[in-house]
Amino acid sequence: MFFSGDPSTRKRVDLGGRSSKERDRKNLLEQTRVERNRRLWLRQQNSAALKIQKCFRGRKVVRIEKSKLREQFYKVYGKYCQNVDRNSFGPDSDFLCQFLYFFKADNSDDFLVLVQICRLLWWFVQDNGDVVKLFAGANYSSTCALANYRVKQFTHACIRALHQNRNHLKDQLLLTPEELNVSTIPLLEVLVLLIDPKLPWSCRTVEYLFQNNALSLLREIILTGKDNAENYFSIGKGSSLERVLTAVICHVGQKPCICSNINPRYCFASQIITIPFLWHLFPNLQQIFAAEDLSQCYIHQMANFGQNLINLLPKDISNEFPSYACMLGNMLETAGIALSHPDCSFDMAIDLAAVTKYLLAALPSVKTSHSRESSMIPEDDMTGDDEVMEIALDRKLEQQIYIAINTRFLLQLTNILFKGISSVNGLDYGPNDKDVIAVDAICGFLYVTFNKMPLERIMTVLAYRTELVPTLWNFMKQCHENQKWSSHLSNDAPGWLLPLAVFCPVYKHMLMIVDNEEFYEQEKPLSLKDIRNLIIILRQVLWQLLWVNHTTSANSVKSIPVSSASKGQSVQAIQQRVSTVVSELLSQLQDWNNRRQFTSPGNFHADGVNDLFISQAVIENARANEILKQAPFLIPFTSRVKIFSSQLAAVRQRHGSQALFTRNRFRIKRDRILEDAYNQMSQLSEENLRGLIRVTFVNEFGVEEAGIDGGGIFKDFMENITRAAFDVQYGLFKETADHLLYPNPGSGMIHEQHFQFFHFLGTLLAKAMFEGILVDIPFATFFLSKLKQKHNYLNDLPSLDPELYRHLIFLKHYKGDISELELYFVIVNNEYGEQTEEELLPGGRNLRVTNENVITFIHLVANHRLNFQIRQQSSHFLRGFQQLIQKDWIDMFNEHELQLLISGSLDSLDVDDLRLHTNYAGGYQSEHYVIEMFWEVLKGFSLENRKKFLKFVTGCSRGPLLGFRYLEPSFCIQRASSNASDESLDRLPTSATCMNLLKLPPYTSKEQLETKLLYAINADAGFDLS
After folding, report:
1. Distance of CA 885 to the CA centre of its chain
2. What PROSITE patterns does this protein's entry cite (predicted)?
3. Are 952 and 991 in contact (CB under 8 A)?
4. Which of 28, 212, 213, 322 has its CB surrounded by the most CB atoms within 10 Å?
């Protein structure tokens, strides 16, 4: 009970909570299990050793027996078969049975015997002509099983022998039948002899070869011969190897062929058509394959493999020669021949489009230019999912594919697929199943082609030489009117997805080339009514993709694959692509509508834009903000102006608070306003440019004008300097026929530092916009597009040079031989009487304009005038402009809207709107008789006098873009005197532009008020009146 000091009597407690007996029991069970497994492993080891020994002894016995049989064979038939006669091949002879038993492909003696046997067999058949009787005797039906077996084994032995010794025979593999003395030709010719389609065992023999992977061996034989040929592109026709393939190619499993159970992995299409440049090696085989029946069978066979096609192909030869690319190149080279056949079926075109789509999708993008004209398309039109591939195709293989997808191929395929589609078919019920299949096929093929191939040639062909645009539009119109969108893309994919993915870039390309007469007058390719309906459809689609359904698609983890060969070809990827091309097309249609209105501007606005959307649009990275960047036309112009103004206000507030102690003051002489402003503003940093700038004017007598700059003098300064800087007399800008400004291409001939001046003018315009000052500078649309970093096209040329545009349109529609006009790819520049000649293309002085290249010539001339000549001036102007105005701010507006941002609209000079938002002080009220007279006088002013009045009281001749409600501070009329004495009535009205304040004496008559007010606003006395 009490502690005795002896620890041994202490009870031991297992803190693990288990008894030692339980632990010992588990250890025992574990040891037993390990022992049992060890004994099992020993038994398996002994059993395996016995099997290995048994197999080894068996093989040793077989090897000994084969060796004995080989020696006996030599004794009976001779080592070189000198004792063999035609009866040796018959069913009663053991000659072939013995030989096939001991034959080894890697035994040199056996190989030589096989060659001699083939040579003898060939001679016997040539002598008698009946190979069936040679193998089966007089009665084939009674000995067919034996004869068929021997033929199968013998043909397979020939192929194995060639494959085993292919490296030693590499120089003989592509020889013609006349070279019978070499080793390979007898083997190949006997193969041709024994698998002749006319023979009764032909299909069974070929089927046996297919099942035993003989085509894979043939593939390696061909590759060895090709790799060791000096120039396999010009090998003579009719080689023995080609004759073997010709005999095999007709076995496609369809009548009259009875081959069955052909493994797709080892069939002719997988093993042979994947050999690089197959038809260059075997031109005769190409003609046979291209025959309608055969090509249709093989293409249908490949189409049946579906998206798994690429997984069934043999291992790539190298990274530069992937099997799928080799198959695609070979197939496309023969597709043109098959499509040109008058009886080419609709089903074959469907299969061809499907197979081409699967294989193209796996290719790395072929974006390199193969033609010098491709430079006409700017980089922003290069559509597609640009997934960078580390592995590039062989250059010749890439060219083979590129050349094969040519004008003829595209025309043939689209014409066959669209042959049965009528523009009036199914107006009441929507498109039929055949229409849906055709549209799915061509759109699936073209969508992948756009992503993988250079676009210039493809787009031009589709736009001008096919009916793709009107056909797809009619299809989409029927679907939209009947609310019946069908597609075989995916159950979860809307039916309009693929058609729009193809229609939009093609129609967009067409709009870049079409002229104004074709679009507005001839209404080609679509009527203006159809275009109005198209705009509504595109707007609804874009809003659904970007806003309504965006959350679902963006958060979807699992995408539905269109092609397993390409990671990017998912429904989600297509939706992203469609949203891009639809927004680009709508933006372009909006440009056409701005040139000459054919639909209401509101048709471009989405129905779902509300205050919640606008509030989110100003938040960076919000979905509404992303939509504002990608498709700003969906949002009404006034809403975008509010967003733009709020962004500018936020930046001004941020920098204004910092600039209180670093205010920049300019002393400007009115007669040297441009030079003084350039010298002082050019020294400011970007940070200081964003801050406040205050101006003091000096008149012509060197005296500082009265007035403290609270913002009004600066506004006056900005209006005056912009008028001076952009005056055409200064030489930096020129005027179009419509008195619109654009950079002078010859500015360098007038000013040495013209690029610095353009940088300064860009900064100047940006400062005006940054401060919310409207300036009356009408820019040409094609120059405003440079502020958005956009490319100008032919339809922009009338605003610059209407006469040149008419001449180019004359060339475009000229019916005669254009080469007789003696035009070349050069253009003459005439600046200030100095003429210079420039080539439009390298070597253009020697390149005559013809009917084939006149379209290229027309667009190169337009590009030179609209883009190339003013590129440097525009670039420097843009750099200065972007010092204060971010690109994404400007991208919210098109060129027409951008001009409104710069200069405002005459609609903003609304007297009633100004009266509605005017405050009164000093005893005036809205009902005061002086105020009533004032508004009557102002309403009776001309537009020019209204602009002068507005400048007199606000410092700017244009009102706020969204109306006087947004004038800061609000316009105010203050009584200039407390009494109506004669002295006060003789005073002129004065103003405080920094506060938008008019100090108006209490004139007693309307005539007096009008006279004094007109004198004041026309005095042009600077700020001395104040």
Report:
1. 29
2. HECT, IQ
3. yes
4. 322
CB atoms within 10 A of CB 296: 22
The residue behind tokens 């007297």 is: 911
Residues 6+ apart with CB under 8 A from 38: none
- Which DSSP string do the residues of 500-545 spell out, in sequence order? HHHHHHHHHHHHHH--HIIIIIS--SS-HHHHHHHHHHHHHHHHII
d(CA 747, CA 869): 11
Q: Residue 502: name the closest of 633, 370, 353, 631 by CA.
A: 353
CA angle (591 as vertex; 586, 596 as ends), nearest 5: 120
Q: Please, is 495 exposed, middle or buried when counting C-beta atoms within 10 Å of its C-beta (0-12, 13-18, 19+)?
A: buried
pLDDT at position 565: 36
Q: Decide if 994 is catalytic.
A: yes
E runs forming strands in 893-989: 918-921, 971-975
Return d(Cα 749, Cα 320) in angstroms, integer: 53
Going by C-alpha positions, the residue among 741, 742, 767, 779 that lies closest to residue 677 is 767
Q: Judge whether 496 and 431 are in contact, CB under 8 Å.
A: no
Alpha carbon distance 949, 946 (integer Å) = 5
Per-residue pLDDT reduced to its tens digit, 872-882: 999 999 999 99
The answer to whether 643 and 892 have CB atoms below 8 angstroms apart is yes
For the chain, give the longest Cα–Cα distance: 150
Report whether 173 contacts 166 (CB < 8 A): yes
Element (H, E) at 830: strand 826-831
Cβ proximity of 271 and 216 under 8 Å: yes
Distance (Å, rounded) from C-alpha 805 to C-alpha 791? 17
> What single-letter amino acid sits at 616?
Q
What's the mean pLDDT in 411-420? 86
**Helix, strand or coil for residue 498?**
helix
Percent of the chain at pLDDT > 70 equals: 86
Please tell me the distance from the alpha carbon of residue 47 to that of residue 151, in angstroms, as a whole number: 40
454 confidence band (pLDDT: 50, 70, 90) = confident
Helix axes 637-658, 754-770, angle to 10 degrees: 100
Q: Is residue 731 within 8 Å of residue 747, measured between CB atoms?
A: yes
Please pick, among 250, 326, 956, 994, the residue that the annotation labels catalytic.
Answer: 994
Other CB atoms within a 10 A radius of the CB of residue 667 amount to 11
Give 228-258 pLDDT, tens digit per residue: 665 444 444 578 999 999 888 888 766 667 6
Task: Check whether 832 has a pLDDT greater than 80.
Answer: no
Q: The tokens of 816 are what?
A: 């005669």
User: What are the φ and ψ backbone dihedral angles of 292, each rounded to 5 degrees?
Assistant: -50, -50
β-strands 733-735, 741-743 pairing: antiparallel
Nearest C-alpha neighbor of 643 from the set 886, 883, 881: 886
**SS3 assignment, position 218:** helix
Counted residue by residue, the chain has a size of: 1026
pLDDT tens for 585-644 read: 999 999 999 989 999 999 999 988 888 888 888 888 888 889 999 999 999 998 999 899
| Burial category of 636 from C-beta neighbours within 10 Å (exposed 0-12, middle 13-18, buried 19 and up) | middle
- Return the CA Rg of the chain: 43
Tell me the backbone φ, ψ of residue 597, rounded to 5 degrees: -70, 125
CA distance 648 to 769: 9
Region of 731 on the Ramachandran plot (φ > 0 left; ψ -120 to 50 alpha; else beta)? left
Q: Determine how β-strand 990-992 pairs with β-strand 997-1000.
A: antiparallel
> What pLDDT was estimated at residue 563?
36
Q: Which residue has the tokens 């502690």?
A: 3
* Strand pairing category for 971-975 and 918-921: parallel
Q: Map residue 358 onto helix, strand or coil.
A: helix
Degrees to nearest 5, angle at CA 835 with 831 and 841: 105
Q: How many CA atoms lie within 13 A of 31 on its CB side?
A: 6
